[in-house]
Recover the amino acids of this structure.
């Protein structure tokens, strides 16, 4: 048994001094007293959970792989990621593809990893088998995903799916999207907030639990709030940047980064509980694919290592406390993925995953120093608030399932 202590430990009842005892990879007791490791005033947080990470291995490992993605996650305070079913080849829409994914991950992990399944037209019959095999839920697109092997599915087809697991939806209504031009203003205009809010309205009330990915707009927040059986997330790049910050295609993502009014609506959505979490949507690609203009460049931002410090930079400016941050970055993503019986909080019986965070420190972003496979980042040169001092897993990194 070992014990760890801080004057600022984030627990279910808030942040307070505590000594946490660990045995056999689990938190076993929370009390007082001298500890084997005393972190002083540094904040002791639960290991973060990132439920929106595109690892892309196998098949597109040159974009990102398990070794680099999980090493980056660990450096940023994340101890569990949930891998998206695209852009790997094959996509994780069958049990056989899930097994290929697990085989590819073997021996390469620095964090725990769980997996989302996916549904595309024709793969609906695989949902039950994937659920039995331990996926955490199912990712779907209502519009073009950007890769041909992962086409969109109709709302009518989703209505026929029977599962207790969440459906994770990229919500943009195709008919409301335009043709992007080469400039950012043209790209932004081609993906209006109305496309997001209309798609959210269409999936309201479907039978499985519905979770809306990467909400980017005030209209999206309002649609989530008024929908039935729907939760939502947003991402650090929507909380930190505005369209005025966009200087190149390294900022391209879908939905796009919008103006300051939409950014503030996302913060209000988080603080009010209308949005449940902040996840990275880590979606890297080789630098050559990010070159060109906003019509042709790949849309995706690699940020799994920066989620904590980037979010804290905006949160601290708005007076948001660290316990709320822990909920957005650990507790809520763990709950969405069905892993909250062992992840997402510091409590007896949970996996002894934790991050030691200096909220008054600073992190200057240099892409070449990040552990992602590729160095390109819209955060290049930024001085973010906070510093990850240490990240620890209770047990050696492993693959998880929801069963």
């Amino acid at each position: 048994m070992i014990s760890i202590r801080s004057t600022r430990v984030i627990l279910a009842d808030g942040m307070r001094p505590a000594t946490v005892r660990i045995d056999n990879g689990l938190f076993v007791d929370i009390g007082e007293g001298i500890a084997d490791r005393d972190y002083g005033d540094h904040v002791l947080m639960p290991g973060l959970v990132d439920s929106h990470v595109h690892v892309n291995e196998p098949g597109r490992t040159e974009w990102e792989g398990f070794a680099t993605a999980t090493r980056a996650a660990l450096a940023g305070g994340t101890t569990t990621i949930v891998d998206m079913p695209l852009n790997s080849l094959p996509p994780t829409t069958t049990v056989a593809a899930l097994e290929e994914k697990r085989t590819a991950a073997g021996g390469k992990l620095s964090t725990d990893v769980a997996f989302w399944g996916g549904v595309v037209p024709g793969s609906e019959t695989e949902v039950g088998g994937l659920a039995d095999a331990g996926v955490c839920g199912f990712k779907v697109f209502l519009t073009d995903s950007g890769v041909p092997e992962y086409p969109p599915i109709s709302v009518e087809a989703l209505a026929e799916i029977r599962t207790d697991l969440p459906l994770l939806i990229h919500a943009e209504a195709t008919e409301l999207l335009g043709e992007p031009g080469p400039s950012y203003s043209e790209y932004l205009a081609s993906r209006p907030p109305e496309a997001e809010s209309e798609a959210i309205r269409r999936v309201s009330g479907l039978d499985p639990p519905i979770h809306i990915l990467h909400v980017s707009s005030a209209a999206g927040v309002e649609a989530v709030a008024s929908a039935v059986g729907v939760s939502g997330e947003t991402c650090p790049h929507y909380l930190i940047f505005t369209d005025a910050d966009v200087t190149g295609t390294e900022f391209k993502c879908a939905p796009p980064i919008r103006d300051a009014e939409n950014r503030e609506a996302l913060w209000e959505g988080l603080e009010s509980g209308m949005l449940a979490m902040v996840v990275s949507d880590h979606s890297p690609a080789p630098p050559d694919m990010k070159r060109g203009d906003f019509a042709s460049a790949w849309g995706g931002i690699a940020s799994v290592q920066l989620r904590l410090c980037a979010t804290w930079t905006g949160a601290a400016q708005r007076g948001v406390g660290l316990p709320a941050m822990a909920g957005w970055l650990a507790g809520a993503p763990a709950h969405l993925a069905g892993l909250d019986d062992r992840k997402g909080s510091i409590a007896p019986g949970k996996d002894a995953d934790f991050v030691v965070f200096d909220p008054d420190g600073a992190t200057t972003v240099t892409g070449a120093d990040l552990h992602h496979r590729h160095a390109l980042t819209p955060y290049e040169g930024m001085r973010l608030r906070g510093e990850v001092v240490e990240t620890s897993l209770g047990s050696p990194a492993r693959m998880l399932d929801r069963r």
